[in-house]
Automatic annotation (TrEMBL), chain A:
This is ABC transporter ATP-binding protein. SMART domains: AAA (SM00382). It comes from the Bacteria. InterPro entries: AAA+_ATPase, ABC_transporter-like_ATP-bd, ABC_transporter-like_CS, ABC_transpr_LolD-like, MacB-like_ATP-bd, P-loop_NTPase. Coiled coil: none annotated. CDD domains: ABC_MJ0796_LolCDE_FtsE (cd03255). Keywords: ATP-binding, Nucleotide-binding, Transport. GO terms for molecular function: ATP binding. Residues 2-232 form the ABC transporter domain. It holds the Pfam family ABC_tran.
Length: 233, 806
């Protein structure tokens, strides 16, 4: 589904040039669950931003479902993003002024989907996330785990081809973390492709493949057998 | 469509909740904008009113008032001769003319069954085609009949009420010019007009027959399209000079567009005190400045707080919102706040309108479905759009990736812009402070100006028929007044010292040639004791006195004689550098009767009218007046002045059989000369104060924000041992530096602007550098206090509480 070839990302300021990503080659197949790991500053968030089309590479080819999108303009990227991608962030990034229902509904509104269908889909996804009784709450009235579940629901409601998760459990305690990871795994088993950035070896085990990064480069890649076992158990 | 609506709903929900979360911010933003809008709306309402004058008349755009500049007097008058009508129509039959006679005159009338006379001002004789030119609403009766038949009279509604107590007056009779007149119509004139026509009657044959040199009527003309106006004026200037003034270049004909009279004409013999284009200009400038200041507050506070909306922008972008959609969302929010502020402003306008109407002396009214509604809507919308564009662009441009990954920093452009705008506001505040102060100083200077005459305890009796004054055989009326207790001296004037001199004659000095001859000299007819009564400063010679019978104007067979008093400027122009040398000179004034004037006194220059012009040479002639009415001037004992005034009024009512003797203190008349400027001064002072207050609001909002931003730094410094005063200065200094830049910008700009304004006065204050320093110091002090209050709060917090939050 995704092919990155010789991706470079260079940040320039007046005095300084920093190479955040250096010759990244990566292929992600549909249905995979990829965990990207590495120390702080190794470029994994930059990679995720490029995968999520929030940032464009300075050089290289980004092939998404057969299209090279590396030179797409912002408007075209926004179009792809709203139809194909779901995001889950470490700090949830829910809009505090909107209710749970409205937060989840938002991407559907940007897609221009009719009100009736929106209601139906939001209700269905909230039910699936066991959040239906919280639909009218504001994000700040929920626990961290619940907020992250809302964020996941929001990512899922458009039936994305790909979910990008940036340390989705970074702000959660272990019980809530477990809950969110279980959910991601289940989504993956149901066929959603997931790319997740994480610090935690433990959480990386939920993935089917682990990509290790250092100083803007991919240093190792390996399939994770235990995860595969869990997956097919 | 439904989706767009639901998106709109979404924007509204977010907007309203986000805004409500920061109530102080909202209050400052909304309040500031509402006050700025309300003030601007009030001013614009006034401007709209002023600009709407005389636009309701048919063909107002092609109607002009015929005017002329008298070259020797260097003065322009709105009156011309009734004989112009025939000349104009001979020139081009398409030219329409209507005339109004009765300029500046009062007529005395007597109501049926009453022995007393009443003066009627602005009583006009008019051509029957008057209604083709002006929109007059006939309330009852037949106006055309009144304008075409003799001994008929039409009354304005308010005049009917003044005379009879009601407006049902058709068929009533009154005595006017010695004959009975019947009232056959009652009409109403639009208030928004330069016209004041209290009564109308047919143009008399006498007026119709007046020759070209008699300038007694207002001529209004409608000119055909395509007429070359310059050639037209040149032609008639030459024609009139040739026919009326033996070919001398005495006058130049001018045209004043009807719709420009109210704002651009301030001549003698205007029917009303007209408005002033400069007041309107200053008003527009103030409205723009106020909106600018309020708009800047809005922009500054919006962008300063934008960081709090950054996450939302990031999320929305990630979810697929385009930049345009986000721009629209934040623009909508700005418009909503502007609309809310607009509503609040309307409430304020409603509440303040009576006060403001009195302040500007205009009957302002709000028509929500009419002009005012449009004005309010446009102003609010424009402000909302202009103030909203930058914040919306700025916020919608946030980089989603940076915002969401946490390395988001507010752009430095926004900070520079905020600082730049704050500097602009500071400059406006300093400029307005100085302008207000200079304006007040100048007004005070003008009012305290030595006019060459005394104003304290001087009482003026207005408009008495000259049969009782200059033309009376015996000065018995003055003798009676003189006997009233507290009256120290009395005299006559045929023009008011606070008005304009409108008569001038050529003077022929002994041994004078055509090359050295003086231009016609403005002159004033007076009674005995004028120097003492008016308080002129005598430089040489003596006052007019009844001890010298030859002083008073006397006609002999083919010539006349009178005593004269001249001003020092006139003495100098006539070649007498030492005033005493002019005494005893005999000057010949060429009139229909040659008049020999013997100079008996020289006085210091007299400023007639307002001090916007240089004092002119002036000749006072004893006992002579060509006018129909004159005025009595009395010098009273200040201790008994009120008592004497009552007795004077009583005596005149009895002796003259008049109900409406008008008395005024010379000092009040003088102050009234500056009424417009005073009003201007008050308006500027109030709105300048408002602009300064709004700047403070903005400063407070920004300072509050920056104090919040820097609370961690403050806490750290406190931990390291900084004292509260030190911290307050730390935070305030940033703003003081900006205000210093404001001062540097404002001072030269203000100096130049005020210098240009002051150049229009013959006497003017010099701008003191101290004033500028003071204004800057005041602005600094206000700024420091505002910021310090906030900084103190931040600096007083326990560092542990602040640091723990991070």
């Amino acid at each position: 589904m995704i092919q990155l070839q010789k991706i470079q990302r260079v940040f320039r300021t007046a005095e300084l040039e920093t190479t955040a990503l250096n010759t990244i080659n990566l292929t992600i197949e549909a249905g995979e669950f990829v965990a990207i790991m590495g120390p702080s500053g190794c470029g994994k968030s930059t990679l995720l931003s490029i995968l999520g089309m929030l940032d464009s590479p300075s050089d290289g080819v980004y092939n998404f479902k057969g299209q090279d999108i590396a030179r797409f303009r912002e408007k075209q990227l926004a179009e792809l993003r709203k139809n194909q991608l779901g995001f889950v962030f470490q700090s949830f990034n829910l809009i505090d002024e909107l209710t749970v229902f409205q937060n989840v509904e938002l991407p559907l509104q940007y897609q221009g989907i009719a009100a009736g269908e929106r209601k139906q889909r939001v209700e269905a996804i909230l039910k699936r996330m066991q959040l239906d009784h919280r639909a009218d709450h504001l994000p700040l009235q929920l626990s961290g785990g619940q907020q992250q579940r809302v964020a996941v629901a929001r990512a899922l409601v458009i039936n994305p081809a790909l979910i990008l998760a940036d340390e989705p459990t970074g702000n959660l305690d272990s019980k809530n973390s477990e809950e969110v990871m279980q959910m991601l795994r289940q989504l993956n088993q149901e066929g959603t492709t997931i790319v997740m950035v994480t610090h935690s070896e433990h959480e990386a085990r939920y993935a089917s493949r682990m990509v290790q990064m250092l100083d803007g480069q991919i240093v190792s890649e390996r399939a994770l057998a235990p995860a595969a076992e869990v997956k097919y158990a | 469509m439904r989706n767009a609506l639901s998106m709109l709903g979404n924007y509204l929900t977010t907007g309203v909740r986000a805004v409500l979360r920061h109530k102080t911010h909202l209050a400052l933003n909304l309040g500031g904008l509402a006050i700025g809008l309300a003030a601007a709306l009030l001013i614009l309402l006034y401007v709209q009113h002023e600009q709407g004058f005389d636009r309701m008349h048919p063909d107002a755009g092609s109607t002009f008032r015929l005017e002329q500049t008298f070259i020797p007097l260097e003065q322009r008058f709105p009156v011309t001769s009734p004989a112009m009508k025939a000349l104009l129509q001979d020139f081009d039959a398409r030219i329409e003319v209507t005339r109004l006679a009765g300029v500046g005159e009062e007529v005395l009338i007597q109501l049926e069954g009453s022995p007393l006379q009443i003066a009627m001002t602005h009583a006009f004789q008019a051509d029957a085609n008057l209604t083709d030119f002006f929109q007059l609403e006939v309330l009852s009766g037949d106006l055309q009949a009144a304008l075409s038949q003799p001994n008929r009279l039409a009354l304005a509604e308010h005049e009917a009420i003044r005379l009879f107590g009601h407006s049902e007056v058709l068929g009533k009779q009154l005595q006017l010019d010695g004959s009975n007149h019947q009232i056959t119509a009652v009409y109403r004139l639009p208030a928004q007009s330069h016209l004041q026509l209290n009564s109308l009657r047919r143009l008399s044959d006498e007026v119709n027959a007046q020759p070209l040199p008699m300038n007694t009527v207002y001529n209004y003309v409608k000119l055909p399209d395509g007429l070359d106006l310059d050639a037209f004026l040149a032609h008639f200037t030459e024609l009139v000079n040739a026919q009326a003034y033996q070919g001398q270049a005495m006058m130049a004909l001018e045209l004043q567009p009807l719709t420009a009279i109210h704002l651009h004409s301030d001549l003698s013999f205007e029917m009303k005190v007209n408005g002033s284009a400069s007041t309107v200009g200053i008003g527009l400038l103030l409205a723009a400045l106020l909106l600018l200041v309020a708009g800047i507050n809005f922009i500054n506070m919006s962008t300063a707080r934008a960081g709090q909306r950054a996450k939302e922008v990031g999320v929305r972008k990630t979810l697929g919102a385009s930049r345009w959609q986000l721009f629209a969302q934040f623009m909508l929010e700005s418009l909503l706040i502007a609309a809310a502020a607009g509503l609040l402003a309307l409430v304020l306008v409603e509440l303040l309108l009576p006060w403001f109407s009195a302040l500007v002396n205009r009957p302002l009214a709000l028509s929500y479905l009419g002009a005012f509604g449009g004005l309010a809507f446009t102003t609010v919308l424009t402000t909302g759009l202009l103030a909203g564009v930058y914040p919306a662009l700025f916020i919608s441009a946030f980089d989603a990736k940076k915002v969401l990954s946490g390395d988001f920093q507010r752009g430095s452009t926004a900070i520079w812009l905020r600082k730049g705008l704050l500097v602009l506001q500071g400059a406006i505040a300093i400029g307005l402070l100085v302008a207000t102060a200079v304006l007040q100083q100048q007004l005070q200077l003008l009012q305290q100006q030595d006019t060459g005459y005394q104003r304290d305890a001087r009482l003026l009796v207005h408009s008495i028929a000259n049969e009782h004054l200059f033309w009376a055989e015996q000065q018995s009326l003055l003798s009676s007044l003189q006997r009233i207790e507290g009256v120290q001296s009395t005299s006559l004037l045929d023009m008011q010292l606070t008005d304009t001199i409108s008569q001038a004659m050529s003077i022929q000095l002994p041994g004078q040639t055509a090359d050295t001859s003086l231009p016609p000299i403005p002159q004033l007819g007076t009674g005995f004791n004028i120097v003492q009564t008016a308080g002129f400063t005598l430089l040489a010679g003596r006052d007019f006195s009844s001890d010298y019978q030859s002083d008073w104007y006397q006609q002999h067979d083919d010539q006349a004689t009178a005593a004269g008093i001249i001003t020092e400027t006139l003495a100098r122009r006539a070649g007498f550098n030492n005033p005493a040398d002019a005494i005893g000179q005999q000057w010949l004034l060429q009139n229909h009767l040659a008049l020999t004037v013997t100079v008996v006194g020289v006085i210091a220059d007299v400023q007639v009218g307002a001090a916007t012009r240089q004092p002119e040479p002036l000749l006072l002639i004893c006992g002579r007046s060509p006018m129909h009415i004159g005025h009595i001037l009395l010098q009273l004992d200040p201790l008994q002045a009120m008592q004497s005034r009552l007795q004077i009024e009583q005596l005149l009512t009895e002796r003259l059989q008049r109900q409406d003797i008008r008395l005024s203190w010379l000092d009040d008349d003088y102050t009234a000369l500056y009424q417009n400027q005073q009003r201007q001064g008050t308006v500027i002072a109030i709105f300048a104060a408002l602009a300064i207050a709004l700047t403070c609001v903005g400063l407070f909002g920004l300072a509050a924000f920056s104090a919040e931003q820097r609370s961690r730094e403050v806490a750290m410094r406190k931990v390291l041992g900084a004292g509260p005063f030190n911290l307050v200065n730390l935070l305030a200094n940033e703003y003081l530096k900006l205000m210093a830049i404001s001062a540097m910008l404002a001072i030269p700009a203000t100096y130049l602007a005020l210098d240009a304004w002051l150049a229009g006065f013959s006497v003017r204050v010099t701008q003191s550098p101290w004033l500028y320093l003071l204004a800057a110091a005041i602005t600094f002090a206000i700024c420091w206090c505002t910021v310090a209050t906030l900084a103190w709060q931040v600096a007083s917090r326990k560092p542990a509480m602040v640091l723990r939050q991070y």
